[in-house]
Design brief:
With 456 residues, this protein is an alpha+beta fold. The chain is 40% helix and 25% strand.
């Protein structure tokens, strides 16, 4: 390695200067990241707060009313909520494709033709020699004296001289070859999408040498041309309705796939970076069709939708918006109901009685758990920790409804005198964030537009 570096230094000064610039940038980046990482330290206060959050436990009770999912909301309320909360419904740039996939598979006739072809190699046959103008006998696989040359001439795989011990052959021929005489030919048999002939060539002690001729079972040229013609016909469709009609007529199942510019695969197709490039080309418009020949299959793709980056349309997110409005409206109604009863209640039992509710118990809650017996409710857990013993909280909007909580006891954790070990634990969680968060922050500040997907 040192010799290569020295050679570049001596003979390729431009390349060496390029390396120097790259190394300098990398070293500066490492120093900057290390500087930020070393500044991320945990104080005794951080350690104490973390320790208390993990160790303190709360016991209490609460009353709860679920959101009214049948509450009526108006169109104007839905539209107003959508306008005020558009950032909650982002929309990524994407393309949608309709796909017809034609697998180029051999027909029964193709398979029979290949089987007949390989079967004809077994026995000797007479051929007419145009030079001597006489009939000559050409030895087949069974009687040939030069097995290696015969295999190399007629098989897709070269002759394998390996001697195989017991159990090392394919299960299809293991038993047959172990009990056969030298020169015995087995087949044709089908294995790994190939027709094969196997001849016991030699036997040495418990090992055998088996010569194998194999021919892949592929579709014939006639079959491939026929499938290509069908694909070409569908590719001539002027629009999606025509595309669907032709596919239905030919009994071809259509699928759809949504892709983004940096994708390398397409759902239902697999690796297909060329299709992504095509879909994002400035020359590709709605209803444009691409016929993509992929060896053993043909993919016909039609671009059926272009979605620009921005905010999803209200109609596309109407259900989510309506659910959010109902929840918000129901929460306000429930808070008002709770507040009326809270004005005349001094404890959780009086509140429950006034509202015809049954108090629920929450035991041994920890600040980091975020859950109560009723489910995931971080706001409710936080309310328990924020209340003095015996005090009723204001109505708390949770994930499932509205709550009022009452803290009955708080078990404080005995803080250790030395926080050294805990601070190291916190720093080990905090400092690695510098490696990626500094990079992302610099990238955002630089306003970098990543156009690599347009070229790779």
């Amino acid at each position: 390695l040192a010799a290569v570096i020295q050679q570049i230094h001596d003979n390729d000064p431009l390349r060496w200067m390029y390396f120097e610039k790259i190394i300098l940038k990398e070293r500066l980046n490492q120093k900057h990241t290390s500087l930020v990482r070393q500044g991320l330290i945990a104080s005794n206060i951080d350690a104490k707060v973390y320790y208390n959050d993990q160790g303190a436990q709360v016991n209490g009770r609460y009353v709860f009313k679920p959101f009214d999912t049948n509450i009526e909301v108006t169109e104007s309320e839905i539209e107003a909520y959508y306008r005020e909360n558009k950032e909650e419904y982002p929309q990524n740039e994407s393309r949608e494709l309709a796909l017809a996939i034609f697998e180029i598979l051999p027909t029964d006739s193709d398979k029979e033709e290949i089987k007949t072809q390989i079967q004809s190699l077994i026995q000797d046959k007479e051929v007419y020699n145009k030079t001597t103008k006489n009939k000559e006998t050409v030895k087949g696989f069974k009687n040939t004296e030069d097995v290696e040359a015969f295999v190399d001439s007629h098989s897709e795989a070269s002759f394998d001289p390996t001697f195989y011990a017991k159990g090392q052959l394919s299960p299809e021929i293991e038993s047959v070859m172990r009990n056969a005489e030298e020169g015995f030919v087995y087949g044709p048999y089908e294995e790994d999408n190939k027709y094969k002939l196997a001849r016991l060539n030699k036997r040495v002690s418990d090992s055998v040498q088996v010569a194998i001729i194999e021919i892949t079972i592929d579709a014939s040229e006639e079959t491939a041309n026929e499938i290509y013609a069908q694909a070409s016909e569908i590719a001539s469709a002027p629009d999606l309705s025509g595309f669907e009609a032709m596919a239905d007529e030919k009994n071809i199942a259509l699928t759809t796939a949504t892709i983004q510019e940096a994708d390398r695969t397409v759902s239902g197709v697999g690796e297909a970076r060329n299709l992504v490039f095509w879909a994002y080309s400035n020359n590709t418009t709605i209803n444009t069709v691409k016929l993509d020949d992929q060896n053993n299959r043909i993919v016909v793709a039609m671009l059926i939708n272009i979605t620009e980056e921005g905010t999803q349309n209200l109609e596309d997110v109407r259900f989510q918006v309506e659910v959010a409005v109902k929840r918000e409206k129901s929460a306000e109604a429930l808070k008002e109901e709770f507040n009326k009863s809270l004005s005349n209640a001094s404890n959780i039992d009086e509140l429950a009685k006034a509202m015809s509710l049954v108090p629920e118990t929450a035991s041994l809650l920890s600040f980091s758990s975020n859950s109560i017996p009723g489910g995931f409710e971080p706001n409710v857990v936080g309310a328990f920790y924020g209340m003095k013993q015996g005090q009723l909280s204001n109505p708390v909007v949770g994930n499932s409804g509205v709550y009022v909580v009452s803290t009955e006891s708080i078990k404080e954790s005995a803080a250790p005198k030395d926080f050294t070990a805990l601070k190291k634990q916190l720093e080990s969680q905090l400092q690695p964030r510098a490696n990626f968060e500094v990079y992302n922050a610099l990238k955002e500040l630089a306003e970098i537009e990543d156009n690599r997907s347009k070229f790779y």
